[in-house]
Specification:
By secondary structure, the chain is mostly beta strands. It has helices at 18-21, 23-36, 93-97, 176-179, 303-306, 388-393, and strands at 61-62, 104-106, 108-114, 122-126, 132-137, 156-160, 168-173, 186-188, 193-197, 204-212, 221-232, 234-237, 243-247, 254-258, 266-271, 278-280, 286-291, 296-301, 315-320, 327-336, 339-347, 364-368, 376-381, 411-413, 422-426, 432-436, 444-450, 472-474, 479-484, 488-494. It contains six helices and 30 strands. The strands form seven sheets. The protein has a five-stranded mixed beta sheet, with no helix packed on it.
């Protein structure tokens, strides 16, 4: 992003991994692209300057009553686990050196591994003919990962998961958007559409690629790949599969694209709003938007876009922040015992504005949206190592000298929207962490997996985990699928006692 990163003492590290070294370059490239398109007329979606499109009136930011900042109760690891000792979530250099061959496990078992690198999203899909597939992006930062010998980080990997113990890669998607989707890879299961807009840690001019995976998910069919979004980095998909949203993140840019005909998608609204990750309500009328620059959560009325009103207008309903906010990453609507919540998660341990207190770490939380005009954080999902004192003590652990890595959350996922029971989150250096949220006011950690060390340029060669991806689920098998940035795709299976009603 073009904003200055406030990283505190960790930003002065002698170690500057390749991942961070290119961030400034990518931001500069984005500036060049913006300058290059500045001569376009204001109605052209390539006009990358801010201010073209609708600017919804901004509502006041609320900081409502919230629970005390405590670590989530740690998992009690049952027989058959290979757990870590010490502070929950902390993975020391000694622990990495002594790692079991299949990693550290708590209340789950290692099932399978495939590939050598991973990115930000993993999806599971069953097509109309019963084929079971996984899709995942392979690059933390294209083209840097691709410089590895053998080029494992090229495009979106397509896996045949008919036998989850033996994933088989059947295809690789390599349009420009799939080579560098950053966090935008998205799947609409209702229509069987897989889409992405090209992006990077800042943003890129938005080329949107759409694939049909409904007939044979093992071999997606390209419907279109067109420069129809203003900017790209993240995305959203309406549940009915008719609208794809491309978010520019570092700039006030959201493009709503009608994909009713995925072979001829059409932009239908341009919003002048900051948006990192975004999810859409079941009826398509609300967008839940993580604002990474102003550090808050936005609930946006997009009903006129959903219902295809002429010259649609969006309307802000509410904005919420909280005391430990870092960089909001995404927010997912769920229901627990009939009550609506958002599962929100932040990334990293710094902010773009208003310097955070030392050792403020991004984690996850449940937000009660029963009154969407006055949402409220009701519980936190965070590890012991995310608490200020413990985080400070772990300052020089592997992975902690890079502000784009560290002991923080990055992406979470749920197996279903209604009464999901569990949440699985990638906690970067702490690996995959699983929480029980059946009691939304008192969540608890129930399982984890720390992948075996893999020494790569992205983690500075120290072997620390780089777990950044949104997980996917196979409920019938109690499996979670996710990727680690430096070592690839994993399948793990939860103990039955951990997930009683999959």
């Amino acid at each position: 992003m073009r904003q200055v990163w406030t990283v505190g003492r960790k930003g002065t590290s002698r170690r500057l991994p390749l991942l961070l070294a290119v961030f400034a370059l990518l931001a500069a490239l984005g500036a060049v692209a913006r300058a290059g398109f500045s001569s376009k007329p204001p109605t052209d979606l390539f006009a990358l300057g801010q201010g073209v499109g609708q600017t919804p009136a901004m509502v006041p930011v609320q900081n409502n009553r919230q629970p005390p900042l405590r670590a989530t109760p740690r998992a009690r690891c049952l027989r058959g686990s290979h757990p870590l000792s010490g502070v929950d979530g902390r993975v020391t250099a000694a622990a990495l050196k002594a790692s079991p061959p299949t990693g550290y496990t708590c209340n789950l078992t290692f099932v399978a591994h495939q590939g050598r690198s991973g990115g930000f999203k993993v999806f599971r899909y069953v097509d109309r003919h019963g084929h079971v597939c996984a899709f995942y992006d392979t690059a933390l930062l294209f083209p840097i990962n691709a410089f590895q010998t053998g080029g494992p980080s090229l495009g979106v990997a397509v896996l045949d998961m008919s036998n989850p113990a033996h994933p088989v890669q059947t295809d690789t998607l390599t349009t420009v958007s799939m080579l560098t989707p950053h966090e935008s890879l998205n799947l609409n299961p209702k229509r069987g559409l897989l889409a992405a807009v090209n992006g990077n840690p800042a943003t890129e001019p938005g080329v949107v690629s759409i694939y049909d995976v409904s007939q044979d998910c093992r071999h997606p069919v390209l419907d279109s790949s067109l420069p129809i979004a203003r900017l790209g980095h993240e995305s959203g998909f309406s549940p009915d599969g008719r609208t794809f949203y491309a978010a520019g993140t570092a700039y006030k840019s959201i493009t709503a694209i009608d994909v009713t005909n995925p072979k001829a998608p059409q932009p239908i609204w341009q919003g002048v709003e900051y948006s990192h990750g975004m999810t859409i309500s079941d009826n398509g009328d609300r967008a839940y938007i993580a604002d990474p620059v102003n550090a808050n959560l936005l609930i946006l009325d997009i009903s006129q876009i959903q219902h295809r009103k002429s010259h649609p207008q969006a309307r802000e309903i509410s904005r919420l922040t909280w005391n430990t906010v870092t960089i909001p990453q995404n927010a997912m609507p769920i229901r627990i015992h009939g009550k609506p919540y958002l599962l929100e998660f932040d990334e990293y341990a710094f902010r773009f504005k208003n310097v955070a207190p030392p050792d403020t770490v991004g984690a996850a939380r449940l937000v009660d949206i029963s009154n969407e005009r006055h949402p409220r954080v009701v519980s936190n999902l965070r590890l012991q190592v995310d608490q200020p004192a413990q985080h400070h003590a772990a300052d020089h652990d592997p992975g902690q000298l890079d502000p784009a890595q560290g002991y923080a959350a990055h992406y979470c996922g749920v197996p279903r929207e209604v009464d999901p029971e569990i949440v699985a989150c990638s906690f970067i250096s702490s690996g995959l962490r699983v929480f029980d949220i059946r009691d939304p006011l008192h969540p608890r950690e129930v399982a984890y997996f720390v992948a075996p060390p893999s020494k790569q340029p992205e983690n500075g060669g120290d072997g620390s985990n780089f777990a950044m991806s949104k997980p996917a689920f196979d409920p019938a098998r109690r499996e979670i699928w996710y990727t680690d940035g430096t070592s690839g795709f994993y399948v793990v299976r939860l103990f039955k006692s951990v997930w009683p009603n999959p």
